Each structure stands twice: as structure tokens, then as C-alpha cells.
Amino acid sequence: MEWFEQAQAAEQRQDWDAAIALVSAHAECYSTDPSRHDSHLWHMELLARAERLSELTERALTDVHARRRLNASLHERGMEAALRNHAEDGDSGALYALVRLLCETSRTEEAHRAVQDLGPDDQYAHQIVARFRSPLRGAR
After folding, report:
1. H or E element that contains 42
2. Rounded Cα distance, 94 and 7, in Å
């Protein structure tokens, strides 16, 4: 059995330690080898699914893929305070996830205030809020 088949089997049985060990041994961020880069993305996904948010947070300091997956995980878990902290530290992806979370939970005005406080010049953050404020939002 190939390593990736072993990793898939470990993932299916939620043996996160085994899956992460197998995948991380073949992972390389921004590798010229597409399979190594795909393994890197898979590694970040496994960390999230294993709820290893502290490891993702540490990696997010230098790894854009870890940062994106961390922000998605925080959004999925409704971890507003953590997203706000990351946004305050200048992470625009965290700001976008925070704004979406606030809007999705019917707190559009709070989302608008967050944009004003954390990214007043960030046009994309303003667009997210505007999409949720639009009366045509549900009509598409």
C-alpha cells in the first residue's frame, strides 16, 4: 500500500496522528512538485480536522496556507474573538472571515463597525458587508 493510501485510511478512521505524520513527510509549501504542494494543503486540512488549532496558529505566522485554513476553521467554529484578534494583528483574511461570520449571524451592523475599526480602507471587507445588506441577496 502506498503512503497516500495509508494516509487516506488513517484519515477515514480519524487516526489524526498517523494521517498527519504520513502526509507531512511528503508535504512542501510552494513546491515545484504539484503532489508535494497538494500534500502540504492536505496537511493543513488534517491539522484543522484534528482540531490542532495551536499548531495551525504557529504555522500561520509564516505559512499563508496555514493562515487561510486557520481562518476558515475559526469561522466554521464561530470563534469570533480569535478572528478579531488575528484581524487586529493585521490579518486581512481573518477580517473577512470575521465580517462574514457576523453577517451570517444577522449582525450586519456589528460587521460594519468591525470593518470601520479594523480595516476602514479595505474595500473587499466593505463589499462583504454590502453584499449582506443588499435587498437582492436572497433573490439570486
Report:
1. helix 34-49
2. 30
Amino acid at 103: C
Do 60 and 67 touch, CB atoms closer than 8 A? Answer: yes
User: ∠ CA 96-73-51 to the nearest 5 degrees?
Assistant: 160
Please answer whether residues 24 and 42 qualify as being in contact, where contact means their C-beta atoms are separated by less than 8 angstroms: no
Q: What is the pLDDT of residue 133?
A: 85
Phi and psi, residue 98, nearest 5°: -65, -45
Count helices and strands (H / E) in the chain: 9, 0
**Phi/psi at 26 (nearest 5 deg)?**
-120, 15
Q: Are 36 and 27 in contact (CB under 8 A)?
A: yes
Below-50 pLDDT ranges, the chain: 139-140
Number of residues assigned to the chain = 140
Residue 72 pLDDT: 98
Q: Are 99 and 129 in contact (CB under 8 A)?
A: yes
- pTM exceeds cut of 0.85: yes
